[in-house]
């Protein structure tokens, strides 16, 4: 038995783990006390990771679909040669626009993306359909307008705030904030700190809150604008902050001054006095911050919601300081900036052929992909670390569209529902079988990074993504298989030069062979990578990233304890990343640095956004949403035993094996439905059979199903709800196309014994 350091890969917190390993298995998993961020914290899910690492549906060799629909085992060489030929022919016949990439890393695996993205360059495509564009692009778009670039992403200092507003998030279950349960407990225990939860469900977080605003689903825009209106009418906004750091408050102020507060609060169906208490409490607290997530992002008015929640902390001056909301730096640049008002690098933004959809932060929304395949000319799709058949809106539409593709390739560790439709399935080594890292290093003022080393050898013939993509580029004829001169330079260079010699040779090589620039990741992997200790070739890419990070944030990196001139500083950060297996603090910022992260030329925050003001004004005349369906389904609750689609083996769950549908006792009584009864949940898109859990945490008229179920295991029927059978690609924000997954109109029907099995 031996003990190693790694990280949990189940949510964006990627908590540090100390694991005992014996005979290729995890025998004990606990929190890593040396991890600079989680400091020993973990939740109940991490202890179950053996069910991710070893299970019967792991892929062990490449598969090729046969004419009869079955899969045949093929060699890597055959699979990659045939895929390369097909990709080259799609490109030649239909151009790069016929190719799309889906996915780009889950919660813990973003190293592979740095290699996978090279395929876009190889194909001459810019189409990345990412899970982020079904949750967060409205937020990124608003950030772009406020701060100057969509990469200006905000974080929240919940740990140090006196007043915390949790809107549409349930950190007790979903985490998303540092050491969530401990952090929540600390706020609850401290009589001088206040926790407010805005959520239609009495969530596990709401149960701990001082005030719970249990609003009607989808009415956040009304509630948040009413809170803002109270703040400005009572003069509780921060005039100094607004005049010193912001422009464009006047028109928003004018709108808020005449906003019908009581009518909006009635619409949200929460007690008026509670709303006044929250508005006053938040605006007058010493320090206050707002934390939001899917409950606000996947519901009605989600782009306006993003604007309004940001206005709460900006108008009250809770930005750029301890205990407030702040901007942060990235080590792995997870998102880009694609402002539709400008061109990027002299090129016009690429619109999708059918929906004419703009990219936001470089990403396109999964909601429109089936249409773009059926009507927009996409012929080849490459899926990596994602199971869109289960996780994107409208499972049946995805199935139809994917079945029409000329080429579907899936890179995964398991035979997913999406993989079952693929022409080729490529087995990836698991996150514990290769060098891996998460790009969710989104902290401020201290930021960190952890490069994890492999703990097990790859299952069967599976390969790490850097190897898969590099071999494919070679097969496509785009790069040679090795780079002997660069490799020699990397191996011979003395440590003291901080890779300067290598860098100069690398730059010279690329200047002679410009087409190789797009494949920098693979070239580094096959050259500098071969000179790194512990076979950490896949980590070579972090050298240029360390160069970039240290040159942008030199002082903050030095404050984190690194030394040296430009090259040596980068090299010392790079070496720390390679050698500190519990992760390392990479920068220590000061709160005033936030102002240097703003990208507007005038350095100010631009509060006036025409589109948002128009949307805010439109609320005044917006009719109550009407539907023929009596219930609003929240499709995708985070619970104790779900974790996206990362676990396939259902045995990982200690409870909630069916992924029950929560329903209010009065609704259950009216429909004469008993706890545990099987019923049909039916939307305008499809229907599924579910088990009812009678539960008074949900509002009347609302039902809730968990995310992360519905997968097959060992050829079983789907286990638990395939909830995206119920969702529609068209039920979404008109501007960003973010699905309204938290607001799906449904009907609940008693199981008619004559209806056999309900599927799509
Ligand atoms: N256990 C577990 N944790 C996870 C994950 C997981 O699968 N399982 N997934 C991870 C991922 S990818 C993400 S993005 C995060 C998401 O994390 P969260 O967004 O925190 O989780 P959800 O449960 O999807 O939704 C949060 C809350 O929104 C509420 N809500 C629903 N409708 C509305 C509404 O109209 N208004 C408001 N204000 N609230 C509403 C719900 O009742 C719910 O309590 O979780 C991460 N953590
Ligand atoms: N209705 C509804 N739908 C939702 C949501 C909701 O709340 N409601 N939530 C949405 C959200 S927030 C998100 S983030 C998405 C998530 O949905 P997806 O983008 O599909 O991501 P995951 O569920 O994390 O899928 C992970 C896949 O990666 C595979 N995998 C695991 N490790 C590796 C690895 O090392 N390499 C490779 N190549 N593959 C690996 C797993 O086997 C699994 O198939 O779902 C979205 N879908
Ligand atoms: S699931 Fe998230 S919070 Fe829980 S241990 Fe894993 S990374 Fe940490
Ligand atoms: Mo997510």
Give me the secondary-structure topology:
Blueprint: E1 2-7, E2 16-22, E3 25-31, H1 50-53, E4 63-65, E5 71-73, H2 76-94, E6 99-103, H3 111-116, H4 118-123, E7 128-129, H5 137-147, E8 154-156, E9 163-167, H6 171-174, H7 180-189, E10 194-198, E11 211-213, H8 220-233, H9 239-245, E12 246-247, H10 249-257, H11 261-268, H12 272-284, E13 288-292, H13 294-297, H14 302-315, E14 325-327, H15 369-374, E15 380-384, H16 388-391, H17 395-402, E16 407-412, E17 424-427, E18 436-437, E19 446-449, E20 451-452, H18 465-475, H19 484-492, H20 500-512, H21 520-526, H22 542-552, H23 554-559, H24 566-579, E21 584-588, H25 594-597, E22 605-606, H26 610-618, E23 631-637, E24 661-663, H27 665-670, E25 678-682, E26 687-694, E27 702-706, E28 744-750
Parallel strand pairs: 6-7, 6-15, 9-10, 9-13, 10-11, 12-22, 15-16, 16-17, 23-27, 24-26
Antiparallel strand pairs: 1-2, 2-3, 4-5, 4-17, 8-14, 18-20, 19-21, 23-28, 24-27, 25-26, 25-28
Helix pairs in contact: 2-18, 5-14, 8-10, 8-11, 8-12, 8-14, 18-21, 22-24
Bound molecules: ligand MGD (2 copies), iron/sulfur cluster and molybdenum atom.
